[in-house]
# Entry
Amino acid sequence: MNNKKGNKMEKNLRKGRIYLVATFNNTIITITDEKGQPALVGSTGMYGFSGTRKSTPYAAMVVVEMTLKKAIKDFQLQIVDVYVKGIGPGRESALKVIKSLNLNIGRIIDITPIPHNGVRPPKVRRV
# Structure
């Protein structure tokens, strides 16, 4: 039997994807290869932010910068596609950090879900 927990990613990941989830309470970044297999994950809680400080733009900046620097150093990441989901406060500041790190950004895609018809309206009130 093989006792390995999982296959290690190859150390050379030139092209990849960045998934950025910006909610009202947290900011999570996932760096994957071209097929979508995760290579590196970072969130505001992993970098020492807790409580209401997790939902700040500064926390999002720190998380994205530290995680991407690690990906550039460990995997030689150069060419990325960015997928942004959510409308949290860290969204814009995280995108600014991604642009400032001299990565070749192929495209930035917003994958935030949009409701088509919304929820069912309440019954008419009878007085």
User: Anything to note?
Assistant: The mean pLDDT is 91. The first helix runs from residue 57 to 75.
